[in-house]
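SAMPLE LOG
Freezer: B-3
Tube label: C17
Construct: single chain, 413 aa
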Amino acid sequence: MSKGYSRHPLLIPATVIKRIAGNLHQRVVTEEKIALSKRFLIALLSLCGVAAAFVLTRPPEIPFQEHTIDLGSSESAAIADIDGDGKLDIISGENWYQAPQWTRHRFRDIDFTNNYIDDLSTLPLDVNEDGHVDVISVGWFNKAIAWWKNPGKIGVKWQESPIQTGYPVEFAFLVDLDNDGKANEILPEFGDLKAPLAWYERDHHGGIAKHIASPRSYGHGIGCGDVNGDGRNDILTPDGWLEAPADPRAGDWKLHPDWKLGDLGFLFVADVNGDGRPDVISSMAHGYGVFWLENKGNGAWEEHMIDDSWSQPHAVTLIDFRGTRNIGLLTGKRYMAHNGKDPGAREPLGVYWYERLLVPGSKNIEWVKHVINYGGRIGGGLQIPVADIDGDGDLDFVVGGKSGLFLFENKTK
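STRUCTURE (predicted):
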């Protein structure tokens, strides 16, 4: 430092410092607001783009071609390879129909009472495991479940063997109750509350074994599925569900009286709204309504109507016509289920497919109603079997009933 010089600190008034600090703060805040505004605008535009991408549109129809198989009366129908030629045939009532020309073969005689052919379910199963598909039938008037042995020859009458007698049976299904992934067990719906609720399986000695799940039955309707998510299929009834034990052949089936629903058809279990909980799907067999029950947890269920504009949806089949692992319901109005005494019995017949639309980002459901047939002589009957009957890679179906037997060929491929 040169001689004669002295250095002093620069003194700035406090008011000036305060003014400068305020200006700097205002500038920083303004820049932050601009940055936030830009980010908000970008997010908003992104959401708009996502929303536009998630707009629900009505899916296209699937074309079906109707084929009349038999104009005679029946109640149920099934699809199976009866003659072992590799082609799927149709079974209904007293006849089976040989593919591909649907040549009729009468293989048994069934009692006709009060306008009913007393074959209310037709279940194809190789009971004696001889390589030929046999047929299991149930009857209301003859109060029996029986199986009919396939002789393996065309033109020969089949032999009937009883499985269960003493109680009227409204219908039955092949289900998976031993949890092996195969629907080979028989689950009937008895029309007498005093009948023990039982299921049946092949005994691997040429016959059928019986297993009782409850000392009583629970009304019109039966179903199978894993209600509590423990990996074991339970039994569903109109008055609740029976929890499958670890050993379904010997354990105790605990009743959960979670609902009381009335006269139903089959009860299915599926996660309808995508929330991870098993829900229930069913129909009012002798009234109006196809519906599902939302599982709210802890034994609480909320009913959601899918369609109650027509009556007698006795048969419902869970189906995925598009092969996208979506939930669909194939159903139809049963013709004269109780000889015209049911509500809406004389209203037009129809066959319908309901396709679920799950709204992305929510648990909201839309059901698309596809009208496959309406206003003619075709209804849903007691069973609607589905299979790729012509081997072209898409799913066809068959309906039978008092107004006839019909094949609907899927013309997608």
